[in-house]
């Protein structure tokens, strides 16, 4: 049998199938799709010229050839994997909560590498205060919170969200640029708003931070997902304040324009929060998030 790096990868997949008893569990452990695992197994069987597993209703059953191969390569592959892996394998499930938009766009991609080391995640979406209540009740292990938690929690600043006031080009053209420079709140007050909720939490914060007062316009659309807010803005329903990580692709594409350019953009700090005694798996997740270079979102 050849000894290329590709073959080593095939052997690692083989060993996961052998030890887990199914292609599904091997795919989960390796962070691959089941068709990819099936393809690797087929390639290895072709190279060896032998069938390694017999499929059953409960998974797969190893053949004598597979038993022999596992005995010969198992220990060596384990030692090689350990030598090449700078972090010890961690096992267990971490229950983590955060805003749906942040977790989908930034949080889950940041956590995904940890699953290759054995960690599993149960992810809950929700508002910060609701998630902190679940953390206090021990229903969650970690929360990524957009509000500073009260006493009793362990909170570390993670990164800052930068909010931009954006609108579709058609509405942007209705803004009087001279008036915008002199009295921006007045220049923008004719624009319809798209909001996350009826009390305009993000827009209200933007207006108070930049203009010293609340918005005078009510929302034409209220939808509890910032990705949907952006979609409505792009479609021309109104303007809104959105975190840079959501707005920037639409800005680059020209489907929205930034309507107001403050000297210091409004920021909101995100915290990684735990409470009480933590496990090694939870500590690893917190450290992984804290050590990441998030930049300004």
General description of the model:
The protein is α/β, with parallel strands linked by helices and 297 residues long. It is 47% helix and 21% strand. The chain has 13 helices and eleven strands. It has helices at residues 5-20, 23-30, 34-48, 64-84, 100-115, 128-136, 169-172, 177-182, 184-188, 201-211, 226-234, 244-253, 280-290, and strands spanning 53-56, 59-62, 92-98, 119-125, 142-145, 154-167, 193-195, 219-222, 240-243, 257-258, 267-274. The strands form three sheets. Strands 3, 4, 5, 6, 9, 10 and 11 form a seven-stranded mixed beta sheet that branches. A two-stranded antiparallel sheet has the order 1-2. Strands 7-8 form a two-stranded parallel sheet. Strand 3 (92-98), helix 5 and strand 4 (119-125) form a beta-alpha-beta unit. Helix 1 (5-20) crosses helix 3. Mean pLDDT is 88; it is low at 1-6.
Which stretches are low in confidence, meaning pLDDT under 50 for 5 or more residues running? 1-6
Compressed to H and E, one letter per element, the order equals HHHEEHEHEHEEHHHEHEHEHEEH
Largest sheet: 7 strands, mixed
Q: Would you tell me the overall average pLDDT? A: 88
Count the DSSP helices: 13
Radius of gyration: 26 Å
What's the multimeric state?
single chain
Number of strands: 11
The percentage of residues in β strands lies in: 15-25%
| Helix share bin | 40-55%
SSE-based structural type? alpha/beta
CA-CA gap between termini? 49 Å
**Overall 3D form:** elongated
């Amino acid at each position: 049998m050849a000894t290329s790096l590709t073959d080593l990868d095939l052997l690692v997949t083989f060993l996961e199938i052998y030890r887990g008893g199914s292609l599904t569990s091997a795919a989960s452990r390796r962070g691959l799709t089941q068709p990819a695992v099936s393809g690797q197994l087929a390639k290895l069987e072709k190279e060896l010229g032998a069938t390694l597993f017999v499929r059953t209703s409960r998974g797969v059953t190893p053949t004598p050839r597979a038993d022999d191969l596992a005995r010969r390569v198992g220990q060596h592959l384990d030692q090689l994997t350990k030598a090449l892996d700078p972090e010890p394998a961690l096992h267990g499930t971490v229950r983590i909560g955060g805003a749906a938009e942040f977790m989908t766009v930034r949080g889950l991609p940041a956590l995904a590498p940890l699953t290759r080391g054995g960690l599993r995640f149960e992810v809950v979406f929700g508002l910060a205060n609701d998630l902190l209540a679940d953390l206090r009740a021990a229903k969650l292990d970690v929360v990524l919170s957009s509000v500073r938690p009260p006493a009793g929690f362990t909170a570390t600043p993670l990164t800052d969200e930068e909010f931009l006031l954006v609108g579709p080009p058609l509405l942007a053209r209705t803004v009087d640029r001279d008036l915008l420079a002199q009295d921006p709140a007045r220049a923008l007050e004719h624009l319809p708003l798209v909001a996350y909720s009826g009390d305009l939490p993000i827009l209200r914060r933007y207006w108070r931070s930049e203009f010293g007062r609340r918005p005078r316009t009510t929302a034409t659309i209220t939808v509890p997902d910032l990705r949907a807010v952006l979609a409505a803005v792009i479609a021309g329903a109104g303007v809104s304040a959105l975190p840079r990580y959501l707005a920037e692709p639409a800005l680059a594409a020209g489907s929205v324009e930034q309507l107001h350019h403050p000297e210091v953009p409004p920021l909101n700090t995100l915290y990684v929060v735990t409470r009480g005694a933590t496990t090694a798996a939870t500590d690893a997740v917190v450290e992984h998030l804290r050590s990441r270079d998030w930049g300004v979102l």
